Amino acid sequence: MSEGKIVEAKAQKNLQDFDPQKKPKRNKYAFACAMLASMTSILLGYDIGVMSGAAIYIKRDLKVSDGKIEVLLGIINIYSLIGSCLAGRTSDWIGRRYTIVFAGAIFFVGALLMGFSPNYNFLMFGRFVAGVGIGYALMIAPVYTAEVSPASSRGFLTSFPEVFINSGILLGYISNYAFSKLSLKLGWRMMLGVGAIPSVILAVGVLAMPESPRWLVMRGRLGDAIKVLNKTSDSKEEAQLRLAEIKQAAGIPEDCNDDVVEVKVKNTGEGVWKELFLYPTPAVRHIVIAALGIHFFQQASGVDAVVLYSPTIFKKAGINGDTHLLIATIAVGFVKTLFILVATFMLDRYGRRPLLLTSVGGMVVSLLTLAVSLTIIDHSNTKLNWAIGLSIATVLSYVATFSIGAGPITWVYSSEIFPLRLRAQGAACGVVVNRVTSGVISMTFLSLSKGITIGGAFFLFGGIATIGWIFFYIMLPETQGKTLEEMEASFGKIWRKSKNTKEAEKDNAQVAQVQLGTNVST
């Protein structure tokens, strides 16, 4: 071969070296696992959606006050705290997979109790049981999905719980419309009772899922873990890398390759709460603040008020008649579900941070516009069609912008940033904050609307969302593409961006001084 051809071949090879690597194909096995696990979230979504319409008929049938309806709708979020608090320890004890089965079984019983409720007190008991099941489901689905997902598609797969929450909300709205034609006593009971069906499908489907590889390693079952990792990773090399990182986090020597080993560091929750709250490292403290903050602001911006009370909001806006109200509510569920599907394909392409900031910015604009339009309608003596149309449009734009970022990213982000040793309990704490905030909003919205007007309530939500945007901008670093074990290194320096900027400016000044000195000496 001539020297010219050799040089040309080397040049082509070098150019190929600079070509971007092809993105790995979506792992179908991990996709299936994430979908099955995330189906638990449909339970919460269905309950939220169905109660928005069922409340109209429960109030008429049981003749209860607005205050009792508020408590009925919102209390399930408080009840779910019991499940969320127990889920971390339960999942570390019996595994992520059987915890999902347990959640479905509890909700099944709760749905049946609600469907056969003869009075308000019995209905509250049914919601207590269902709430515990929802608490389990909310905590375990994102954790399991994050632990089986390869880094290349973790954002896409970990957003599935939010997809199914929205699908459940839409199904609940459709159920409201479908059963609204039945008799008053039968209609709302059917709406609530059929919620038992998804939990049965869930329990059967989960049997086909593998256990979480991280839980298997914590139990010393390395042979089973590597089998799962080989199926859920993009390559054999990635599977080995993930195994090595999990072994290191679990305190297993890197050169230990036995199928079953004894794990000296037991990850069953001992000492976790002290490390999370009493003696956290700077990185863990930052992670806790970020996780709890993102859950708080997601709910404090009023999303559950819009979803649960959308018939009330539309009635205040000027829409009359149960059928028209329920159809308008179905539109909310449809838009919410559509945009969450769009978001799943954008998470791993654009990153968590840009989508979250864009989403919350859109929510702020929508909430403030909705507040203005409802205030104008409230103070007008004539029917203003343009204001009614604007109110409907801004409700839809609010749920759309929420679903494109704040909805899915909250669950993705909070499930992926905690280190393995803290993940189950840390994720449970996030769910607790999420449900408490949701419960407070849900149980006070009608009273708040009467106290400061419905427009004033949305001005308040808009202000909270604005503060949330500032919090996210300052406190949340990007996590896209990082392995779960690399995540901790991204935290601990809240002012990382400004500090790096100052250091860069200082370095540039020093370089300029050196160059100036060189120029002068020459």
- Low-pLDDT sequence parts: 5-21, 495-505, 511-522
Order of helices and strands: HHHHHHHHHHHHHHHHHHHHHHH
CATH A-level architecture of the largest domain: Up-down Bundle
Overall number of domains: 2
CATH superfamily of the largest domain: MFS general substrate transporter like domains
How many helical elements?
A: 23
Beta-strand content bin: under 5%
Q: From the helix content, strand content and strand pairing, which structural class follows?
A: mainly alpha
CATH topology of the largest domain: Growth Hormone, Chain: A
Classified by CATH, the class of the largest domain is Mainly Alpha
- How many beta-strand elements? 0
Put the structure in a nutshell.
This protein is mainly alpha-helical. The protein has helices at residues 3-17, 28-38, 41-62, 66-94, 96-115, 120-148, 154-158, 160-179, 184-193, 196-206, 213-218, 222-232, 236-250, 272-278, 282-300, 303-308, 310-317, 322-344, 347-350, 352-378, 385-416, 423-475, 496-521.
Tell me the layout of helices and strands.
Blueprint: H1 3-17, H2 28-38, H3 41-62, H4 66-94, H5 96-115, H6 120-148, H7 154-158, H8 160-179, H9 184-193, H10 196-206, H11 213-218, H12 222-232, H13 236-250, H14 272-278, H15 282-300, H16 303-308, H17 310-317, H18 322-344, H19 347-350, H20 352-378, H21 385-416, H22 423-475, H23 496-521
Helix pairs in contact: 2-6, 2-8, 3-6, 3-8, 3-9, 4-5, 4-6, 4-22, 5-6, 5-9, 5-10, 6-21, 6-22, 8-9, 8-18, 8-21, 12-13, 15-21, 15-22, 17-18, 18-21, 20-21, 20-22
Keywords: Membrane, Sugar transport, Symport, Transmembrane, Transmembrane helix, Transport
GO molecular function, one term: carbohydrate:proton symporter activity
Protein name: Polyol/monosaccharide transporter 1
